[in-house]
Amino acid sequence: MKVAVFYAGEDGSGYIAVYEIDAEKFQRKLDDLSPSDDGDWWSLAHFVEEEGRLLHKIRPDYSIMLEQT
Fold first, then answer.
1. Between the CA of residue 18 and those of 8, 29, 60, 65, 68, what are the distances in Å?
2. On the chain, which terminus has fewer CB atoms closer than 10 Å, C or N?
């Protein structure tokens, strides 16, 4: 499966990294953490970085992050 991790600074800087990771490993970690705060989300992102394979990294000049509802 592919997982995108968005790293955004308050000034609009940052990057987007897309990783390929084993779906079962990712789901187990997601279920184990059941992310509810920033610390959990950072732990999940680090897990993806360590266990996944980086496919693509984009460093835009400016980023806008929107939450879908």
1. 14, 18, 14, 16, 19
2. C
